[in-house]
């Protein structure tokens, strides 16, 4: 039985690794082509638009990647309970989608800089609907990583295919968001068909009181999941707001490279979270793995930044700027690993959701304050420092409070 359990964990890790690798690599393949065809300025307009849409993605996800995953991991063999969690969560996401569209429409009407390229944002509405249709939280909770990977290959491959074959002139940059969104929509449709065929679940709108309860229970998880956008995404958004929008592209590409280096941490965090909820004895060794892995990734990121960027994008001022941003962001993988070890796979597993959400909000607020202070003067360098500041605060507080909880648990155990 133990062998089967560990084999399943390894399979999920490999599947989710492929999922995140595809998520990171395909955009990196597309970016040089798009920069060359549509220009750095127009790519920056797309990156700026997506930085706004990303806020709405987080609203629709609403922390269900933690709250619903934990619920499903514990009741996945009970079809009746599973169906209720599925319906309640998906209904909540639909209402959040409608609210997001209303807010986005108002922003397009009242903010000239957004309304100027309104068609890009309208195309992105398709992406937001695809976000609703593809319940990642369901597959993470059921530990069906292989399916997620296969669908992601289809989705991202179609995005790449559309970009390479259909975007041929500078003016066609407005369609990047459309092709990006179509991939999400197809993934969502496939997911709903799979859920019906494999698990026999048919979506039905839940009662409003059940939706309210679901949202309320996910509030702490929402703050945990959404708060990072305050410094990651807002860094891109503020750079595009205060500087020529090509610099938003520099910042966005820099964070993509940083995300590529941190992909192993993201995989481990999501794969181990449901596993550690059921096997708390493995938390001790997982912390050491997180820390060592994060340290090695950060060192590699700093020393390989210039070489990899030049190899990827060639020589030029943009490559130098992106390389500089990546070096400033190089502590991110290590800090994210500390947060994963002592926060998500530490405090969250010890049911300290409210404490962890407070840490996340405080760290994000520190990042936001730093961004407002530095970005208007220091451009993308200020954006990178914003991200590292927020991660540092979160990492330190997660470590301190998790160690405190561990000591309290040991004391209680010995007293018993």
Secondary structure category: mainly alpha
Order of helices and strands: HHHHHHHHHHHHHHHHHH
Shape: globular
Q: Mind summarizing the main beta sheet?
A: none
Task: Please bin the fraction of helical residues.
Answer: over 70%
- The count of β-strands is 0
* Average predicted confidence as pLDDT: 85
- Head-to-tail CA distance between termini: 30 Å
The helix tally amounts to 18
Low-confidence segments, given as residue ranges, are none
Query: If you compute it from the alpha carbons, what radius of gyration comes out, rounded to the nearest whole angstrom?
Result: 21 Å
Strand content: under 5%
In total, how many domains does the architecture comprise? 2
General description of the model:
- The protein has 2 domains: 1-226, no CATH class; 227-407, no CATH class.
- The protein is built from 18 helices and no strands.
- It has helices spanning 2-38, 40-61, 64-75, 79-110, 112-115, 118-133, 136-141, 145-166, 176-199, 208-217, 219-226, 228-242, 246-261, 263-278, 283-313, 317-328, 332-347, 353-415.
- Helix 3 runs parallel beside helix 14 (263-278).
């Amino acid at each position: 039985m133990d062998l089967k359990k560990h084999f399943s964990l390894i399979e999920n890790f490999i599947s989710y690794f492929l999922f995140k690798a595809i998520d990171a690599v395909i955009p990196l393949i597309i970016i040089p082509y798009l920069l060359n065809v549509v220009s750095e300025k127009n790519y920056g307009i797309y990156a700026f638009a997506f930085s706004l849409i990303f806020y709405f993605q987080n609203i629709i996800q609403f922390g269900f990647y933690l709250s619903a995953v934990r619920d499903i991991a514990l009741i996945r063999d009970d079809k009746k309970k599973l169906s209720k969690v599925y319906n309640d969560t998906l209904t909540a996401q639909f209402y959040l989608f409608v609210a997001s569209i209303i807010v986005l429409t108002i922003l397009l009407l009242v903010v000239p800089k957004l309304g100027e390229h309104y068609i890009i944002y309208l195309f992105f509405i398709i992406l937001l609907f695809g976000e609703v249709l593809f319940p990642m939280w369901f597959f993470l909770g059921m530990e069906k990583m292989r399916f997620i990977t296969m669908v992601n290959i289809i989705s991202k491959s179609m995005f790449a295919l559309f970009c390479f074959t259909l975007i041929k002139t500078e003016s066609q940059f407005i369609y990047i968001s459309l092709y990006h969104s179509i991939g999400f929509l197809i993934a969502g449709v496939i997911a709903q068909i799979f859920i019906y065929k494999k698990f026999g679940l048919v979506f039905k709108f839940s009662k409003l009181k059940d939706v309210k309860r679901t949202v309320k229970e996910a509030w702490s998880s929402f703050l945990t999941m959404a708060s990072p956008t305050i410094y990651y995404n807002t860094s891109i958004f503020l750079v595009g707001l205060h500087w020529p929008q090509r610099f938003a592209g520099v910042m966005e590409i820099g964070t993509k490279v940083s995300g590529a280096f941190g992909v192993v941490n993201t995989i481990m965090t999501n794969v181990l979270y449901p596993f550690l909820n059921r096997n708390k004895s493995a938390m001790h060794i997982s912390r050491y793995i997180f820390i060592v892995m994060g340290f090695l990734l950060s060192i590699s990121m700093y020393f390989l930044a210039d070489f990899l960027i030049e190899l990827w994008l060639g020589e030029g001022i943009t490559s130098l700027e992106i390389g500089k941003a990546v070096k400033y962001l190089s502590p991110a993988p290590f800090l994210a690993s500390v947060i994963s070890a002592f926060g998500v796979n530490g405090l969250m597993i010890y049911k300290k959701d409210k404490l962890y959400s407070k840490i996340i909000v405080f760290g994000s607020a520190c990042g936001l304050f730093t961004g407002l202070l530095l970005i208007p003067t220091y451009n993308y360098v200020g954006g990178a420092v914003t991200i590292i500041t927020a991660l540092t605060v979160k990492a330190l507080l997660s470590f301190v409070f998790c160690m405190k909880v561990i000591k309290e648990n040991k004391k209680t155990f010995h007293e018993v």
